Amino acid sequence: MASTTILHTERIAIDRSLVMRKHFFKSVGLLVSVLALCSVAGAQTYGTKGYAPGAWKPEELPKELSQPKPFNAHDLSGVWSMPTKANYERHSLNDKRLNIQDKSLPGEMRAQSYPPAMTAWGKERFEAAKPSYGPRSVPPGLGNDLVSTCEPMGYPRDLWEANLRPFEFVMASDRVLQHMQYHDLWRTIWTDGRPLPKNPDPAWNGYSIGHWDGDTFIVESTGYDDRTWLDHFGNPHSDQMKLVERYKRLDPDTLQLDMTLTDPKAYMAPWVGDTITFERAKVAIFEEICAPSEENRFNDRVRDAAVGTAKP
C-alpha cells in the first residue's frame, strides 16, 4: 500500500515535470522510468467505470446505481472532467497552442495564455513567477511554484486539473459543494441568499455564493489569497480579484462553463475566459492528497536531483 501511495504521489509531481526540455529528460533516467510506470497507472485509474480505484468493484455495486436519472438542468451533481482534445490540455482561462515546429518539446512548453494587459503590480508579480509551463518554463527544481511543496493551488487554478483529475458537484438545500479530486479540495458555494462578505480574511479558494438565472447557475466569488497563481503559467491575481462563473448543464453528459475575472490591481481589463465543456465522468472521486512527506521525497529523489540541488 505504501509503495502504491508513493508511486501515485510521484505521478502527481511528474505531471508538472513534463515541461522540462528534451536534454533535461535525458539527464534523468529515473524520471523516465517513473513516467513509464505512471502511464500504466493512469490508464487503470481513468479507465474505470463508476467505481473508485482500489475500493468497490463494479460487480459489487447494486445494479440500480447504474440506472440513468431523469435529466434536470438544475441538478449539477455528478463527476465532471475536461477531456484532452488533440493531445492538448487547458491550463488557463484562454491558453492556446503555439506554432512551434520543434516537436521534441513537451506540449506544456508549446502553449501560452493570453491575459489582458497587466498593471505595474501585475507585471512585477508575473515576472517574479518561475513556472514549469509555457514559454517561460524552467525545470521544477529551479522554479518557485508553491504547489511543489504541497501549498494549495487556489481557485480557479485547481479547476485546470480536471484534464486528468475530475471534480464533482454535490447539491444541498443551502449550498453547492464542489469537490476537487486533486488535493481533496472542498469548495462551498452558498445558495441561501447571503451576500458576498464585505471585508473577508483572504482565503485560498475565496468565498462564493450562487444563484440560478433560468437554467444557468451563476457563481460569484471574492476574498482570494494573492499568494496563489491563476494558472500553470504563473499569471497573478490580487486580493481584489472577483470571479464570476456561469455553469449550464446542456444534457445529462455535458456541462458548460464561462468565466469572467475582474482584478483592477493586476489587470487593466476583465479577463474573459474561453468556454469550457466538461463531460460526465463515469468514475468516482478518490483520495488524492498531497502529503508533504511524500512530496518532499519526490523532490529529493527526482526533481531536485535533476538539477543538482538535492540534499546530500
Please give the alpha-carbon distance between the first and last residues.
Answer: 28 Å
The amount of helix comes to 10-25%
β-strand number: 12
Give the helix/strand class. alpha+beta
What is the strand arrangement across the widest sheet? 1-4-5-6-7-8-9-10-12
What is the global morphology?
globular
> From N to C, what is the helix and strand string?
HHHEEEHEEEEEEEEEH
Radius of gyration: 20 Å
Give average pLDDT, whole number: 80
> What's the number of helices?
5
Low-confidence regions: 1-50
Strand portion: 15-25%
Whole-number tally of structural domains:
1
Main sheet: strands, sense, barrel: 9 strands, mixed, barrel
What's a concise summary of this model?
This protein has helices at 2-17, 22-26, 29-46, 120-128, 292-303; strands at residues 78-81, 96-97, 111-112, 167-171, 175-180, 185-190, 207-213, 216-222, 242-251, 254-262, 271-272, 276-280. The protein is α+β, with helices and mostly antiparallel strands and 312 residues long.
